[in-house]
């Protein structure tokens, strides 16, 4: 088993993105040490729904990353145990009125041109896909490439799949970066000592900005809070990931005020998950009755059958938000040896494999699988 | 949604057990407008639980200590202006300046169509406690009941869980349960207590200051002797035998850390087992509002309270078990103290300073005793050795000890939250009330377990249609 001194790369953060970076780096032959101040999947990964989406992404660099990730997730689902609950269930976006439906169709046309599979669903066919949908909707678009995974289990099993090339140091917080007199990176200082390696990957998610500051560079990651409602276990009443057309506008918005759009999906374990609210409220975990009320109202409007179903619990998480809604992936030109893999906002689970794949290529000097210019951490 | 009044009450008391009753009555007698909410149809809470009217109990008080204290409070309640709302299940409390909103489901089981929102300038949380369970092989077999559940069956239904009942676990409740079961006609072949009773002797001052506690123990002790109940301390039920229901249990001696002593197991025939490991403060309404908590001597989370029972959140008071499990007399004192303190804050009446001094002294004395008692009954880390890999730990989601050990040893879980994410332990109907303490111990490996954070944003499950109308609502008079 490699010791602390024999790591080729240190990954900070044992969430989904950190796990994917470690997995692909180990697959490229590197010895990896993953450090987290908490548990595996203890941050945003453990507070998400596990969305693997192409449907909500405009043509552009993020969609390219999502398409690569979708292919890699298919591979991973074969390599990892079935317990990660990978489900290629497909997404269904619905519009309440005709202008909304027209906008959806236009959006889908542009995505199709970028290689996404998107099938228009007229109003009278919506119930073939989702029998419990409310009546009177104007239409929708079906995205068979959308999928879902249980993010905490996927992270844990990904970290284990690479065997002893990945070493985990949990409950250990990074307090500083170590540099040689000539400025080259030597590793990190933690609450339990020093760990040495020539490369450090910042996969600290919503806390990635703080980590960057330890290296003396600025990365404007901010937490964008979200609540998820969880119902009592049900037989399958929601088959796809279903959401209303307003969701894309909320994702793309930079507004600090509360935005909610119902995103509804069943899980193999039975409970239905209902997202998604977005607001900038720092790392405040206080329950927002207003956010929960809007989520419940949105969900019962789309699926009236949920009205009598009980919500068992709710949880909150912090999406790592960057102002241009693109993650920071790749070497930091301002701090040689430091790479970033954070700032994926609400898409981190979906974008993780492609991110890890890119990072592994950067570490081994290979050619990235796509143009990573738009993700350059030095762009801020 | 129905708002109970267009003007807020001065004080909403959540829970009509000893602490809530005492607080509501004290505040109302000082001139406050008080509303008293409880899920049950009766006042009295878990402690003064009463038979249903159809049971036609001639003397329900025969099963209770301190019935006179309750009878007195009930009379004062009837004479007061307190509005008692039975059948109100509080699922959340929110603050919308200048008042608190207490959100309730209504009906016996909370399933009535019409939710209710009660507004109040101050809130007193007297939500009591629930039982702590530690799993062991066979604990899911029919015939195994919780110690508190056996007591409740007796008090409310006047029925016994079996004819030959072993009482086991840890804590002072076991003495009371064993003596009431025996008095009601059951055979109790053994009372199995995991701690050593001598542990109290380490706190002679707390004991000496609380003579009525020693007297209580003597009364129970004498009753047990009379009924031929054998006390086995430093022992535990480590297995239950039977195919369809309990036929026997294995009682094993424990070392100081509660690890079973090899070869010391003895089989005792019985048809029921009443088992409990003390109580856990029920504080989720408070933690959802950000109230500070502390780890009490028995390893549970309790609210941090000021000298006059206020939580760390201004305007939110708590009394009784929410501040740490301490029993009925402490609850009565704290409830009254909180009621007086709220009245003083809201500028009502004139509280007698001497009464406050007296109540504070009484509370401090009883708290010290409660802490000593709690320390003596804290589960030792060795109890985890009772578990086989196939023992269910989370009954709702059927998660075994083996799955939890895998999450901790192989998958990187270091706390109860991550164990829950990776195994679903604690995600079911009881929301971890049953398995939380056990999961926390397993997650801590050999370190001291962090108590579960008692975070349940919904204190009871809420219909989505109720949630969909809970905020943004104008006030409407009834």
Tag the structure with descriptive keywords.
heterodimer; A: 380 residues; alpha/beta; FAD/NAD(P)-binding domain; 2 domains; eight-stranded mixed beta sheet; six-stranded mixed beta sheet; 19 strands; B: 478 residues; Arc Repressor Mutant, subunit A; 3 domains; five-stranded parallel beta sheet; 13 helices; disordered C terminus; BFD-like_2Fe2S-bd_dom_sf (chain B); oxidoreductase activity (chain B); FAD/NAD-bd_sf (chain B)
Kindly describe this structure.
The complex is a heterodimer of chains A (380) and B (478). By secondary structure, chain A is α/β, with parallel strands linked by helices. Chain A folds into two domains: 4-50 and 152-220 and 324-379, FAD/NAD(P)-binding domain, CATH 3.50.50; 88-144 and 222-321, D-Amino Acid Oxidase, subunit A, domain 2 (D-Amino Acid Oxidase, Chain A, domain 2). Helices cover 28% and strands 27% of the residues of chain A. Chain A is built from nine helices and 19 strands. In chain A, the strands form four sheets. Chain A has an eight-stranded mixed β-sheet with strand order 5-6-4-14-15-16-13-17. In chain A, a hairpin with a 5-residue loop joins strand 15 (259-266) and strand 16 (272-278). In chain A, helix 1 (16-27) packs parallel to helix 5. The mean pLDDT of chain A is 93. In chain B, the strands form six sheets. In chain B, strands 1, 2, 3, 4, 5, 6, 7 and 20 form an eight-stranded mixed β-sheet that branches. A five-stranded parallel β-sheet of chain B has the order 9-16-10-11-12. A three-stranded antiparallel β-sheet of chain B has the order 13-14-15, with no helix packed on it. Chain B is 30% helix and 21% strand. Chain B folds into three domains: 2-130 and 280-351, FAD/NAD(P)-binding domain (3-Layer(bba) Sandwich); 133-277, FAD/NAD(P)-binding domain; 387-443, Orthogonal Bundle (Arc Repressor Mutant, subunit A), CATH 1.10.10.
């Amino acid at each position: 088993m490699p010791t602390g001194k024999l790591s080729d790369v240190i990954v900070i953060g044992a969430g989904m993105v950190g796990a994917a970076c470690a997995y692909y780096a180990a697959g490229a032959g590197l010895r990896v040490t993953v450090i987290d101040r908490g548990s595996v999947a203890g941050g945003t990964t453990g507070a998400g729904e596990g969305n693997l989406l192409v449907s909500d992404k405009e043509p552009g660099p993020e969609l390219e990353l999502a398409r690569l990730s979708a292919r890699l997730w298919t591979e991973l689902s074969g390599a990892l145990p079935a317990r990660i609950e990978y489900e290629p269930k497909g997404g269904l976006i619905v519009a309440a009125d005709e202008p909304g439906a027209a906008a959806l169709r236009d959006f889908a046309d542009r995505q199709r041109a970028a290689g996404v599979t998107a099938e228009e669903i007229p109003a009278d066919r919506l119930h073939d896909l989702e029998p419990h949908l409310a009546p009177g909707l104007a239409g929708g678009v079906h995205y068979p490439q959308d999928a879902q995974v249980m993010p905490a289990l996927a992270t844990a099993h990904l970290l284990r799949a690479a065997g002893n090339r990945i070493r985990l140091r949990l409950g250990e917080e990074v307090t500083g970066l170590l540099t040689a007199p000539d400025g080259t990176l030597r590793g990190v200082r933690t609450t339990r000592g020093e760990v040495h390696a020539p490369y450090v990957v910042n996969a600290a998610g919503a806390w990635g900005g703080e980590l960057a500051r330890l290296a003396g560079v600025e990365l404007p990651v901010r937490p964008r809070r979200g609540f998820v409602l969880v119902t009592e276990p049900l037989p399958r009443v929601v088959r796809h990931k279903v959401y209303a057309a307003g969701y894309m506008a909320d994702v793309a918005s930079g507004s600090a005020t509360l935005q909610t759009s119902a995103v509804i999906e069943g899980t193999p374990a039975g409970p239905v998950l209902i997202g998604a609210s977005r607001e900038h409220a720092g790392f405040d975990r206080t329950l927002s009755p207003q956010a929960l009320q809007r989520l419940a109202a949105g969900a019962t409007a789309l699926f009236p059958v949920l009205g009598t179903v009980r919500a068992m619990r709710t949880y909150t998480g912090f999406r790592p938000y960057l102002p241009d809604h693109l993650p920071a992936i790749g070497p930091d030109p301002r701090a040689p040896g430091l790479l970033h893999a954070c700032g994926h906002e609400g898409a981190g689970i979906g974008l993780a494999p492609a991110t890890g794949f890119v990072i592994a290529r950067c570490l081994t000097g290979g050619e990235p699988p796509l143009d990573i210019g738009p993700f350059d951490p030095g762009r801020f | 949604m129905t708002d109970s009044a267009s003007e807020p009450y001065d004080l909403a008391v959540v829970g009509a057990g000893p602490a809530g009753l005492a607080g509501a009555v004290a505040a109302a007698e000082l001139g406050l407008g008080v509303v008293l909410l409880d899920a049950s149809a009766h006042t009295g809470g878990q402690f003064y639980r009463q038979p249903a009217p159809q049971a036609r109990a001639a003397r329900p008080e025969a099963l209770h200590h301190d019935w006179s204290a309750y009878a007195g409070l009930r009379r004062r309640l009837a004479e007061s202006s307190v509005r008692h709302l039975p059948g109100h299940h509080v699922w959340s409390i929110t603050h919308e300046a200048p008042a608190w909103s207490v959100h309730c489901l209504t009906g016996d089981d909370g399933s009535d169509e019409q939710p209710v929102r009660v507004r109040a300038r101050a809130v007193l949380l007297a939500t009591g406690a629930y039982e702590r369970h530690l799993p062991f092989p066979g604990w899911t077999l029919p015939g195994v009941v919780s110690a508190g559940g056996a007591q409740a069956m007796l008090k409310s239904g006047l029925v016994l869980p079996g004819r030959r009942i072993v009482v086991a676990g840890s804590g002072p409740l076991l003495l009371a349960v064993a003596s009431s079961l025996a008095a009601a006609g059951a055979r109790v072949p053994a009372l199995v207590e995991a701690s050593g009773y001598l542990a109290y002797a380490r706190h002679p001052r707390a004991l000496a200051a609380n003579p009525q506690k020693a007297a209580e123990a003597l009364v129970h002790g004498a009753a047990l002797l009379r009924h031929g109940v054998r006390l086995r301390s430093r022992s535990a039920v480590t297995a239950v035998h039977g195919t369809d229901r309990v036929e026997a249990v294995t009682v094993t001696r424990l070392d100081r850390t509660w690890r079973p002593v090899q070869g010391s197991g003895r089989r005792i025939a019985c048809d029921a087992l009443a088992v409990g490991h003390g109580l856990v403060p029920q504080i989720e309404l408070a933690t959802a509002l950000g109230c500070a908590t502390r780890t009490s001597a028995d390893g549970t989370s309790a609210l941090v309270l000021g000298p006059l029972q206020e939580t760390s959140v201004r305007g939110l008071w708590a009394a009784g078990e929410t501040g740490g499990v301490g029993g009925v007399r402490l609850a009565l004192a704290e409830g009254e103290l909180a009621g007086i303190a709220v009245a003083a804050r809201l500028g009502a009446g004139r509280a007698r300073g001497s009464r406050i001094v007296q109540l504070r002294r009484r509370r401090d004395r009883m708290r010290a005793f409660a802490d000593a008692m709690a320390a003596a009954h804290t589960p030792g880390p060795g109890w985890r050795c009772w578990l086989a890999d196939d023992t269910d730990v989370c009954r709702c989601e059927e998660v075994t000890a083996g799955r939890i050990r895998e999450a901790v040893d192989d998958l990187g879980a270091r706390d109860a939250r991550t164990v829950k994410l990776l195994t679903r332990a604690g995600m079911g109907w009881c929301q971890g009330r049953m398995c939380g303490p056990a999961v926390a111990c397993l997650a801590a490996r050999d370190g001291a377990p962090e108590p579960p954070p008692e975070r349940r944003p919904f204190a009871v499950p809420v219909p989505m249609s109720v949630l969909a109308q809970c905020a943004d609502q104008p006030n409407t008079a009834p």
